[in-house]
Structure to design on (866 residues):
């Protein structure tokens, strides 16, 4: 073989075409190119799939296929009584990747943790401005305002001091942006005058290491031989970048890949019948809703909001818009999140009762309003225009005349954030599996000021419950508070909670133990091939 | 001739400035804020929003932004992508060879089939062959590329299993790109089977991208041939008793080719726009898909830089065609 030329040997269906058997290679037909390989710098799912989920570890992580937090680079942690200090005991013997640019001289330690967080939070850090220096997730999760200081107690112990108690903090540390990089590698690259290599040729502690990347074509990984949790069952992992979903399906059928994301809903039936494919499904960690602008008349009136909740025929929407790939939502958080309150009773579809309630609120002849519909497909709403039309027809039946409004996506987000709408369709996909990440981010008073709270709803009772839940790390206590908050939400009705989508993931039969990630990611450690 | 070349080159300068102005203005005229798109549903607080816009230079007056852009262009700097933070020129030239390779193959396919088909149709005007070629050309011309591509994939890759579904080469082969042209790189790699694999991957995209130019070239060749076949010199040649093949192949074709060459030049622009869809269907890592992604994300530097570079390519190709045209047809170069 010539130097610089490598041949991969592929197993499973791919081996049939290749005619050779040997190392196990799993091919994932991903939907697009990553923005880069440092998850702290970007926000797209394709980036996280290509970087944090294969190449890196975090102090804590989510157990594969769940939102449960488990130890990773931190073996254990303790939280002080006042909720202000988090002390992490770091795992020993964790090896970084050995790559063509870098041979680590030491194991992972506290310096790497400090480096990874200080780069993002300290504007004077030598790496802060490298590669554009925008850390949007770190900023969005309010980490800069939350962390007072990070202290290296010894080489295996790190202590985070917070400015205020914030129970979801631990879940934040499991998020992609909190991935731990090698400080030694960073210093080496800085000394060589190429600090940006840190983000282009990544070195992590994760189960796979990067071999090669060709933009819009392919990403190649190999198993990290000294991975701390044991070497991955597959030897090579390949991302074959395939933007069109129908083509992905053809590739899956032809055995050119093993796993594909985001199938075309029209193909689902054929996939179910296909003997070579397993169609996995799970409810998504998301919610699609219609928010009433509670600052504007008539939606400042609770009865009006309740009446319109009764006017909506959700079953019809699920059938027409989701075509089986959605479940009715009654709470603002999906059932896969802990503290989901199943005792909440949803408004039943009852147009006469809705009409009566509207009359009681002073609108016996209804009123005119608008429904904003997103111009794009989102995981929580595959067709907002259609949904808006159905809502329009439902509202018409109770005398409310609604006009459908739409803007370009960026413009839509901006204008709805500024509260220009009367009612707006939108949704949310969870970041870290914490109820706070839905409830406080989307319905808290802070977010009602030109931010993610599109209902611009600020209710003292609800807010107090959420703030209390932030103060304690006791999960049972927090669960009780969130359950109560969901009752308040339902009776106040700032939204019509419409649906949680169902995520489908077609995988070939020879793939063993692939699990759908509730966060929408694709994790290949733990997956094997028959 | 020199005067002709200089005039052609002179026109380039305003065209070039026009392209920069147009792309700069157009991408900003489309509603949408790159910062909003970057963060999605979450939204940013106004302070951070303003800060990011400032970092991207979007807070400055438009004239200043344009000046900044155009002075960069003259120094060969097209800026950095808002999304990947990588230099636009670097991203473009990583992906460009794939598009060129596909476009050249598609053009060769279109020319190799289109010209003979057009000639034969003209020679047998009114025959069944003529009607079928023109019917097929019209169908090909009106074929939605996306649908056509998917149809071919389902038939040839899905049902018959003759060609791979998508990509540039089988994942079995892995070598560092040398030229960026897969046919050359796979041949250079010396890997047995790599070149064949690259060829097999090229077939369907070539057919799909080449379909519209093929239709246009066939129709153009036919009509140009028909026109020439009525000229006096053709009648003279026939009257002299020359073999029909010689009349068509030598006397008529040479003159009929002149408008065909112009059309081929113009098809380069068509190829680039067709590449957008073809590349998406066949997961072809070229610039077509990259530009579309950049437009969706309002990645101003990538859109401006990418379109400028594509426009430059199209302008150069058309300039060459113009020069070639002048070379072939003395009437043109002596006009002015």
């Amino acid at each position: 073989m010539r130097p610089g030329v490598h041949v991969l040997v592929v197993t499973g269906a791919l081996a049939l075409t290749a005619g050779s058997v040997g190392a196990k290679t799993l091919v994932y037909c991903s939907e697009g190119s990553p923005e880069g390989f440092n998850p702290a710098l970007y926000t797209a799912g394709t980036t996280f799939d290509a970087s944090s989920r294969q190449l890196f570890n975090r102090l804590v992580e989510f157990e594969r296929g769940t939102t449960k937090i488990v130890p990773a680079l931190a073996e254990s942690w303790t939280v002080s009584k006042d909720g202000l200090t988090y002390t992490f005991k770091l795992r020993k013997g964790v090896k970084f990747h050995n790559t063509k640019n870098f041979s680590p001289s030491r194991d992972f330690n506290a310096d790497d943790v400090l480096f990874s967080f200080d780069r993002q939070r300290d504007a004077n850090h030598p790496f802060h401005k490298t590669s554009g220096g925008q850390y949007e997730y770190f900023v969005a999760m309010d980490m800069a305002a939350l962390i007072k200081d990070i202290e290296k107690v010894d080489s295996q112990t790190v202590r985070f001091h917070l400015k205020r108690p914030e129970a979801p903090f631990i879940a934040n540390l499991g998020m992609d942006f909190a991935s731990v990089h090698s400080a030694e590698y960073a210093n080496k690259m800085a000394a060589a005058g190429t600090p940006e290599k840190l983000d282009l040729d990544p070195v992590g502690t994760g189960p796979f290491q990067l071999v090669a990347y060709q933009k819009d074509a392919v990403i190649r990984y190999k198993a990290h031989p000294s991975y701390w949790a044991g070497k991955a069952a597959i030897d090579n992992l390949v991302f074959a970048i395939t933007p069109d979903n129908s083509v992905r399906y053809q590739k899956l059928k032809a055995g050119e890949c093993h796993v594909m994301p985001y199938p075309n809903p029209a193909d689902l039936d054929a996939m179910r019948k296909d003997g070579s494919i397993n169609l996995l499904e799970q409810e998504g960690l998301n919610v699609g809703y219609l928010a009433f602008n509670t600052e504007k008349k008539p939606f400042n009136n609770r009865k009006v909001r309740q009446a319109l909740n009764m006017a909506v025929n959700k079953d019809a929407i699920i059938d027409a818009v989701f075509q089986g790939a959605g479940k009715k939502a009654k709470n603002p958080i999906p059932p896969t999140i802990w503290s989901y309150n199943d005792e909440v009773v949803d408004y039943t579809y009852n147009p006469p009762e809705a009409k009566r309630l509207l009359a009681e609120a002073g609108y016996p002849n209804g009123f005119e309003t608008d429904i904003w519909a997103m111009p794009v497909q989102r995981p929580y709403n595959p067709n907002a225009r259609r949904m808006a039309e159905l809502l329009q027809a439902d509202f018409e039946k109770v005398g409310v005349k609604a006009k459908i409004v739409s803007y370009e996506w960026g413009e839509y987000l901006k204008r709805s954030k500024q509260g220009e709408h009367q009612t707006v369709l939108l949704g949310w996909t969870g970041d870290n599996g914490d109820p706070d990440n839905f409830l406080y981010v989307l319905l808290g008073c802070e977010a009602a000021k030109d931010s993610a709270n599109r209902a611009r709803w600020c209710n003292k009772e609800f807010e107090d419950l959420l703030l209390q839940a932030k103060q304690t790390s006791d999960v049972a206590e927090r669960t009780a508070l969130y359950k109560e908050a969901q009752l308040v939400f339902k009776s106040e009705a700032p939204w019509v909670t419409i649906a949680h989508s169902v995520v489908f993931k077609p995988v070939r039969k020879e793939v063993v133990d692939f699990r759908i990630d509730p966060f929408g990611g694709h994790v290949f450690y733990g997956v094997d091939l028959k | 001739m020199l005067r002709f070349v200089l005039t052609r080159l002179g026109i380039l300068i305003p065209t070039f400035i026009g392209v920069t102005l147009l792309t700069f203005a157009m991408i900003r005229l489309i509603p949408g804020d790159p910062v909003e798109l970057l963060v999605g549903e979450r939204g940013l607080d106004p302070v951070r929003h303003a800060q990011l816009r400032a970092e991207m230079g979007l807070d400055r007056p438009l004239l200043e932004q344009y000046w900044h852009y155009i002075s960069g262009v003259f120094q060969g700097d097209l800026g950095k992508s808002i999304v990947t933070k990588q230099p636009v020129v670097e991203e473009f030239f990583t992906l460009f060879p794939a598009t060129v390779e596909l476009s050249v193959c598609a053009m060769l396919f279109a020319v190799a089939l289109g010209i003979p088909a057009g000639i034969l149709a003209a020679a047998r005007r009114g025959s069944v062959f003529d009607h079928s070629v023109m019917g097929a050309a019209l169908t090909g011309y009106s074929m939605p590329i996306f649908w056509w591509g998917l149809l071919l994939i389902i038939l040839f890759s899905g049902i018959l299993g003759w060609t791979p579904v998508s990509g540039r080469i089988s994942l079995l082969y892995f070598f560092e790109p040398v030229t960026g042209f897969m046919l050359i790189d796979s041949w250079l790699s010396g890997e047995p089977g790599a070149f064949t694999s690259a060829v097999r991957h090229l077939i369907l995209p070539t057919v799909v991208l080449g379909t519209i130019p093929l239709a246009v070239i066939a129709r153009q060749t036919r009509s140009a041939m028909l026109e020439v076949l009525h000229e006096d010199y053709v009648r003279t040649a026939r009257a002299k008793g020359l073999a029909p093949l010689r009349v068509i192949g030598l006397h008529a074709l040479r003159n009929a080719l002149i408008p065909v060459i112009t059309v081929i030049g113009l098809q380069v622009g068509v190829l680039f726009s067709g590449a957008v869809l073809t590349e998406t269907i066949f997961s072809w890592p070229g610039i077509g898909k990259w530009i579309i992604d950049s437009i969706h994300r309002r990645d101003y530097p990538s859109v401006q830089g990418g379109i400028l570079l594509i426009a430059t390519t199209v302008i150069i190709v058309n300039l060459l065609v113009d020069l070639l045209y002048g070379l072939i047809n003395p009437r043109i170069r002596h006009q002015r």
In short: Chain B has a mean pLDDT of 87. Chain B touches chain A through 60 residues (CB under 8 Å). The first helix of chain B runs from residue 2 to 29. The radius of gyration of chain B is 24 Å.
